[in-house]
Specification:
Helix content is about 40%, strand content about 20%. With about 475 residues, it is α/β, with parallel strands linked by helices.
């Protein structure tokens, strides 16, 4: 894996160099355990260098014609298309993504690069009326300046590009910190693509590091105005708190505990297909995953039987094998946590229709039913291949159960009556919900984000302009104001 070694550096002010910290982040293949690369961590001093480089480079970039800026993203798109096979291999090796998952992530990454091309031209100024005679009110849309981006390990290439490309397209500079389990896909690979696409140096900086080394330096630094964070609600709460103390705007895309609801008039076979994909894609390591599958008690027996039968057909193992549906979890802590959660829930009275076991970081699927109503597993996010089947009697109960969680990210409603599905969907406290489909969706121009503990703010389309630009009022008094003294 020579390209891993080539990308195992910090990228600061257009230079590829080792960090100067006293320890290394080791990048492992979660399936084979093979060491892919080691990267000496960036220190708080290097975070400062990265932010200062971004601050310097941003001035000229903001003044660059947006038609010129967007050429970078057109070239980046072509580079990703040309290197698709190589990038897919990197996703399989670094995060244990299956072939299907790598293709899905790359498809979306290309869509978001296409949208970044458009975003460069999206900001518009306005002229607003005034109660004062002769006054002209202009409202300008300007880049915020520098954006800090912190990306997660589950879709690192996509979720880094999703914030980085729009922030840059809108005239900002960026400092990106990828998750320490995915420093290449989530960090230096993104930098390499944009460097080759002709992004001027200093505009994107990648620091591979850890809180143990830098503390909150990424958040408290005076330069960034906006922090875009994708990750857990626990860390998100900390990010939000520190940003508020330092007068920074935080865009938070956090965890979920989404419900896929199967009403009594649903197409059962289709609902089974949607539920299996929504729960088990990328081993269940998806914030939008169907954590809970709510089924009308009249359909429960048939649905459960068909669901378990389909889950049994999923191939578990080597993500490099195109036939594999379920590969490894990202690391041994996650694998152990998921396995013990299943054991605890069964010990507390749930029934395991399938009881998965761990083999290294690969955890085979579990399907649990008869879960006690007070079980903590029902209200938390499970980042692994565990399906919870929960029966309900009628719509009212379905809505109550779906809302009985601190999260509100995605969801789905299956029904033979689309408008009935919409009526139920209106009552679920969630940022996104899909009728007769899965729970895992992301599109370039539709507002993406959550309610409650699932986050603050939205990304995609016009929401990117709101997130990464600011407004400035400049008034002109034609004629003269009268002052009272």
């Amino acid at each position: 894996m020579s390209h891993f070694t080539d990308l195992a550096h910090q990228y600061i002010d257009g230079e590829w160099k080792p960090g100067s910290g006293s320890w290394d982040i080791i990048d492992f293949n979660p399936y084979t355990g093979e060491k892919l690369a080691s990267i000496t961590v960036a220190t708080a001093g290097e975070v400062d260098q990265a932010y200062r480089a971004a601050e310097r480079a941003q001035v000229e970039w903001a003044a660059t014609n947006p038609y010129t800026r967007r050429l970078v993203f057109e070239r980046a798109l072509r580079i990703v298309e040309d290197r698709e096979a190589e990038i897919a291999e990197t996703i399989v090796a670094e995060l244990g993504g299956t072939r299907l998952k790598a293709a899905f992530e790359l498809h979306l990454a290309k869509e978001f690069l296409r949208e970044a091309v458009q975003l460069a031209l999206r900001p518009e100024g306005r002229i607003l009326p005034s109660p004062v005679d002769g006054k002209e009110n202009r409202v300008y849309r300007l880049p915020v300046g520098v954006v800090g981006v912190i990306s997660p390990f589950n879709f690192p290439f996509l979720l880094s590009i999703k914030s980085v490309a729009p922030a840059l397209a809108l005239g900002n500079a960026v400092v990106l910190k990828p998750h320490q389990n995915t420093p290449i896909c989530g960090g230096t690979l993104v930098a390499k693509v944009l460097e080759e696409a002709g992004l001027p140096k200093g505009l994107l900086n990648v620091v591979v590091t850890d809180i143990a080394e830098i503390g909150d330096a990424l958040l408290t630094h005076p330069v960034p105005k906006v922090i875009s964070f994708t990750g857990s609600d626990r860390v998100g709460r900390h990010v939000a708190t520190v940003c508020a103390q330092n007068f920074k705007h935080a865009v938070l895309e956090l965890g979920g505990n989404s419900a896929l609801i199967v009403l009594d008039d649903a197409d059962i076979d289709y609902a089974v297909d949607a539920a299996v994909f929504s729960r088990f894609v990328h081993q269940g390591q998806v914030c939008m995953a169907a954590n809970r599958i709510l089924v009308d008690s009249r359909l429960e027996a048939e649905f459960t039987e068909k669901f378990v039968a389909k889950v049994k057909t999923l191939r578990v193992g080597d993500p490099a094998d195109p036939a594999t549906h379920i590969g490894p979890l990202i690391n041994s802590q996650q694998a152990e946590a998921v396995s013990s959660l299943v054991d605890q829930t069964v010990a507390a009275g749930a029934t395991a229709l399938l009881h998965g076991s761990a083999d290294g970081n690969v955890v085979s699927p579990s399907v649990l039913t008869g879960i006690p109503a007070d079980s903590p597993v029902l209200s938390q996010e499970i980042f692994g291949p565990v399906a919870l089947i929960v029966p309900f009697d009628g719509e009212e109960e379905a809505v109550r159960i779906a809302n009985d969680t601190p999260y509100g990210l995605s969801g789905a409603v299956h029904t033979g009556d689309v408008e009935r599905g919409v009526r139920v969907a209106q009552r679920i406290h969630t940022g996104m919900i899909h009728i007769n489909d899965g729970t895992v969706h992301d599109e370039p121009i539709v507002p993406f984000g959550g309610e409650k503990h699932s986050g603050i703010g939205r990304l995609n389309g016009d929401a990117m302009v709101d997130a990464f630009t600011t407004q400035k009022w400049i008034s002109i008094q034609h004629g003269r104001s009268r002052f009272p003294f």
